[in-house]
Amino acid sequence: MSTFPLLRTTALGLALLLALPLPAPAQTTNLPALGDGTGGGWDITAERRVGDRIMREVRRDPDYFEDPLLEAYVDALWQPLLASARARGDIRPDSEALYAWQTFLIRDKVINAFALPGGYVGLYLGLMAMTTTRDELASVLAHELTHVTQRHIARGLESGQRQQLGALAATILGLLAASRSSNPAAAQAVVMGGQAAALQGQINFTREMEREADRIGFDVLAGGGYSGAGMSGMFEKMDTASRLNDNNQYPYLRTHPLTIERISEARLRVREANPPPQTGTPVVHALMQARARVFMDTNPEALRHWQTQGNDASAPATDVARLAARYGAALASAQLREWDRAATQLDAADALATRGFADQPDVARALALARVQMAIDQGGNAITGTSAQTALRTLADDASRPAVFMRAAAALALQRAGAPAEAALREVLQVLQNWTVMHRTDAAAWQWQAQCADALNLPRRAQRAGAEAAYARGDVLGAYDRLRVAQALPQRGAGDEMDLAVVNARLRDLEPERRRVLAEARGEKVD
Fold first, then answer.
1. Closest CA to 369 of 392, 348, 398
2. What is the tens place of the pLDDT at every residue in 288-315?
3. pLDDT in tens, 414-430
4. How far apart are CA 496 and CA 500, in angstroms?
5. Is 54 in contact with 114 (CB distance < 8 Å)?
6. What is the DSSP letter of 309?
């Protein structure tokens, strides 16, 4: 864990925004009335560029967390909310095309979430771990999505702040450097500096924006098929937390301050809407909650705590809670590299799932993924063992993103173990290629494709996939360089001609972007 995790508050994310060069705003400085979804003089192309630049920094941070299973769960909650916002007309055609509309995870136990320019929404694992239903988690996503669709970040920037960019740039660069420092005092000194402190006071969302995010977010939540009780439930949790000494674990309370009015309005909306009961499968959320708890803090003491929750003596009363406790204990044991205990807990979880949740493929997937990952992490002959191969067979017909990625990891592990793996590698490479046709911005999918192609001795395809992974992560120059390497590779037969043609076409596509990035780096104005 870094000493001062990047973007721990929305204010810090906006500070990054202000430190980056943008095209000059339009002459008008009047902010629009709340509700029309425009952002004053800041056009959405500039906003997306700023969001992309912030995300490049976020992805470099050690707390940026990629976990296909948790990402898939959050995305499954996110997509109905996007559909609801579209149906309401909150997502306009211009922002639909230009914004990223992506969620991402931060590994930390703090309770926080935030929106960034250009359609990015970040969730901390600590927030996921404290929600008890999917509706509660979806309510946070709906609230942050509304900050994006209503362009609250753009509205919060006044043209006068642009004059501070020169002074702020050094402050923000220092903050980024301090976030990776081994000296906590260095980070704190930057944060407490006069400019940074003043900036934070200027850019917090206004109460009116928070109320708008509550009101519209509630409707987006309901339109996505979730119970509005999820939003009031989150408010009640936050209200309780605000009365306690939260030990800096609840920055969400500071960037999204609760007031009596906001809490009362949320409860009133729930009563007036008469929402249905909380939705979704409780066991799936319980498993993801357990997963977030284990991975949010990998300190051995914390892992020991979750490991003991699976013991018979402390087993919860319900099958859902027992299954989640066993699953979490298995994950914690694997993190501690206590393989026998992990296997025992997984066996117990499998037995519970077979008995009570055999009709839920998401449950079987989560357990199979855990078993295969454990075998890969052990190395040696574990991946060729009976239990790992049985789990892989469970994933064989599963086209979900987590399952495809795990099959790729397993095929590579089989090759490293000296087992026959070429057929498995070719099969999963084809699946990954089909996936990236439909999901061109999936950096992780491109990265797995690059590894599988490299293992099959397909260097041009591997370089091209690596370039696409870099591009999806916002590294235009890195992508261009990898494509140039791919272009220079010697011809390897007729089948390589198509790969070369694709590389040449991508180089032409990226050339204008490469020039723009280089011009911005030189401080030149870019239209």
1. 392
2. 999 999 999 999 999 999 999 988 766 6
3. 999 999 999 999 999 99
4. 6
5. no
6. T
